[in-house]
From TrEMBL:
Large ribosomal subunit protein bL25 L25 domain sequence ranges: 6-92
Composition bias type Basic and acidic residues, residue spans: 1-14
Protein name: Large ribosomal subunit protein bL25
HAMAP family: Ribosomal_bL25_CTC
UniProt KW keywords: Ribonucleoprotein, Ribosomal protein, RNA-binding, rRNA-binding
Protein's job: This is one of the proteins that binds to the 5S RNA in the ribosome where it forms part of the central protuberance.
All copies of domain Large ribosomal subunit protein bL25 beta, residue ranges: 100-174
């Protein structure tokens, strides 16, 4: 697991106004804590921090350089603007090489399940304890050939060497559902429309059978029993 080096600066002003000025200057407000030391208020370069998260994942290991001193840290909480996705604040946890720490690791599905089987994600992350300098970016789960009705629990996951599972081993991570048939989807749609009071229009074929402007041939006059030729001859006479 690579670590990323970030040059930090001490913050002496606090509050919303100070935080906005920090972000306008291209930096992210942050706090650094852990191992019994006092909380340190600092700022990180926004672009470099975003690149570290993008390339190292949510559990990226950072080397924070503050006033010439280096400190290893993990991101424990990241606040982002819901619209702009700009990083607004970061909590950093001090760690040391060789020590164990607990983190939530994302689950990534690989492979294809059996035909007509759909994976149903129950847990997006699982908690593990691992060396702070050897944290995985994600845990892959191979679903190749899995059938509807089967499931993969946390205890089934293949963890990195030296890691310990913290999540309940019996917790369902991925279940597998049967793909719905076209008839089932149609019935579900019809039921939903009925509950909403929506009436379906006639199909095109039905509409064609009862469309306006259709020409209907008039029945022949069979009352006299005379042929058209006889009628014409009678007229000539």
């Amino acid at each position: 697991m690579a670590d990323f080096r970030l040059e930090a600066e001490t913050r002496t002003e606090f509050g919303k106004g100070s935080a906005r000025r920090t972000r306008r200057a291209g930096r992210v407000p942050a706090v650094l804590y852990g191992h019994g030391q006092d909380v340190v208020h600092l700022s990180l370069p926004a672009r470099e921090f975003a690149a570290a998260l993008r390339n190292g994942g949510s559990n990226v290991l950072l080397t924070v350089v503050l006033e010439g001193k280096e400190q290893l840290a993990l991101t424990k909480a990241v606040q982002r603007d819901p619209l702009t996705r700009v990083h607004e604040h970061v909590d950093l946890l001090v760690v040391r090489r060789g020590e164990k720490t607990t983190v939530d690791v994302p689950i990534v599905i690989v492979g294809q399940p059996a035909p007509d089987s759909i994976p149903n994600h129950q847990l997006n992350t699982v908690s593990i304890e691992a060396d702070a300098t050897k944290l995985p970016e994600s845990i892959e789960v191979d679903v190749t050939g899995r059938q509807a009705g089967q499931g993969i629990t946390a205890g089934d996951l293949v963890l990195p060497t030296g890691s310990t599972l913290i999540t309940d081993p019996e917790a369902l991570v991925i279940g597998f559902l049967g793909a719905p048939t076209a008839e089932a989807l149609e019935a579900e749609l019809a039921e939903a429309e009925a509950e909403a009071g929506i009436e379906r229009e006639e199909s095109d074929e039905a509409a064609e059978g009862a469309g306006e402007g259709d020409v209907v041939p008039e029945p022949l006059d069979q009352g006299s029993g005379e042929s058209m030729d006889a009628a014409e001859n009678s007229t000539d006479d």
